[in-house]
Amino acid sequence: MACNCEGIIGIAFLITNILLSLFGIGLIIVGALSDCEVSDIETDNTKPLLDLVLFDSFAAGRLAIDLSILNIIIGVVILVFSVGVGVGILWKYREIKKLLLVYTIIIAGVFVIHIIFIALWYTMINKVDGELKNKLIVSLKENFIEDTVTNLDPISNAWNHMFMTLDCCGVNLVESTSNDFDQTPWCTTVGSCQDNTSQIPRTCCIDVNGMTYPSAPNACHTNVTSGTYNAKGCFEVLKKKLLSQSPGSIGVVITIMLIEIINVTLAVAIGCHKD
After folding, report:
1. DSSP codes joined into one string, 48-103
2. What is the C-alpha separation between 186 and 163, in angstroms, rounded?
3. Among 193, 202, 152, which residue's Cα sits nearest to residue 48?
4. Residue 15 vs residues 2, 20, 178, 268: alpha-carbon distances, Å
5. pTM here?
6. Per-residue pLDDT reduced to its tens digit, 13-26
């Protein structure tokens, strides 16, 4: 009877290790997708702006990239360990029972890392919701000088590049001639907005690029006619990209944690049956 019970535990241990390796692959995929999504936000042209609002020390963008890389690393560790060590222990635990202890310790360590990961991920989410919009608004008000990409101010140029790259405009949703640009130097000091010839940047118009934005139609930048410009605010676009893989990451990590608890329990049970 003891042998039958021991065999059942061994089979269960094999199955959970297979599941763990599959979810390890899932974690690698989610991490890679998240890293690509966040990395695509920043280009050479938008770097002067996004370095300030997203990628400085412990900012939302930097956290998102670091957590994506951590996802990949943890996924690789889980995959290699569950396949190489977990399955090996299953077949040879009579000879290498001490590895069960090593297995348990490593899984427990990974479990703790998962807890830290979830805490940092929610910190990143809170930073996006609580800090990112304010940083963007401050930067727009202080640095948006004109709707060109040839200004001496690299941050102003970066704003215009971001509008064309991410198909967004301003920080918040643009619905009328009264919008986020009203308090920028472009509208209050000098510029086509201050001259009342533009209400939104030409770079906000639909289907323009670095070569064609100077000929953007008046219906877009002067009259702000619906359907001629990108109405989405850049905050929502950036937020969506930064948090695009959040449900997947959290879901995979929590599932892995549950499997790790089962695996540790089974490893201890196997050890006890060998006493």
Report:
1. HHHHHHTSSTT-HHHHHHHHHHHHHHHHHHHHHHIIIIIHHHHHHTTT-THHHHHH
2. 16
3. 152
4. 20, 9, 61, 16
5. 0.77
6. 778 888 888 888 88
